[in-house]
Amino acid sequence: MSTIPQQFSQIYVNYETALSSGKSGFDCLLQGISDRMNEFSSLEEFYNFGGDVVALFKRIMSNDENYNTYMKRLNDTLPQHQRCHTVFGEKCVLYRCNDCSTGESSCLCAECFEAGNHEGHDYKRYDSSGGGCCDCGDPESWCREGWCKKHQEANDRNRASDVLRCCCLLLLTVFDTIKYPYKQTFFEELIKFMKQWADLNQSTLRVMCNIMQESYALSDLIAKLEKLHYKLPSFILEDPKYQTTSVMPILIREIVLSCDPSSFTYFIMVLLFDSAFKEWIVVVYMDELPSLLYDTYNVMSGNSSQEFVRHDQQVASRRDSDHSNQEQIAYRFAIEYLQNQIARTIQQENGEEVDPHSIGRFVPLPSRLVLDENDPAVRDQILSTTRSFLTELERLFAQTEETEHIDPDRFACIGYDQFVSSIHCQFFHTESSLYHHERFAEFYKKCLRLSSKLFSNIFELYSREKFMITLPQPFSTLLYQTLTCIYTISQDADKYNNVLFDTEDGVLVPCDELVEFIVTLQCAGLVPWKRDRYEKTPHNLISYIHLPNSFLFSIYRFLELVIPSYTQEQAELFVKKSMDRVLQKYAEDGTYCSDAIATCAHELSANIYDYYGGLFIYHCVDQYILDCLNLLMKYFPSQQFAAKLTADEKKLLEAITSNGVRMLSAHFYVFSLGSIRFQQSHRTLIFLNECFNNQPSIVQRSIFAIQVALQMLPVDSVLLDVAHSVLFQVDIGLEKKEESAVGVHLMASYLVVLLLAVVYDREYINHDYRVCVECERMTGRQRSKTRCGW
Question: Where would I find the UBR-type zinc fingers in this protein (predicted)?
Answer without folding.
Answer: 82-153
